[in-house]
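Dock tetrahydrodeoxyuridine; give full complex structure.
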Amino acid sequence: MTNTELILEAKKARERAYAPYSHHSVGAALLTKSGKIYHGCNIENAAYTPTNCAERTAFFRAVYEGEREFSKIAVVGAPKGMEADLLTAPCGVCRQVMMEFCDPDSFEIVMAKNPDEYQIYILDELMPLGFG
Ligand code: THU
């Protein structure tokens, strides 16, 4: 699975975003070590704090299905109906969820605007001295 393919999957996932409050749609595509993809979108709530980010939606779907080993995640976010012109960096809560299931020295976060413009970080760069 190339980064380009994974980013296209994250873009697809973005179409499912439920974001009537921020109007910011985010999609994520999480790749397991066995090569399966789990998609996630952000799911907002009128009370705001119950909102779930795209990354966590993808992780929780995968973990429910019994997955425990992950190699990378692609994330694409932008105002609804628009192409991304900024990279979406996972929030602190999502980084902590990644810490629970991923090796900080090898798990990759692919932050993308589109399949040709992206940056890759390992989890340890985004969550130095993370609690695990
Ligand atoms: N959001 C994500 O889904 N992932 C991120 O990495 C950053 C933020 C969502 C949460 C909320 O629904 C919207 O984007 C605006 O913050």
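Observed: The mean pLDDT is 97.
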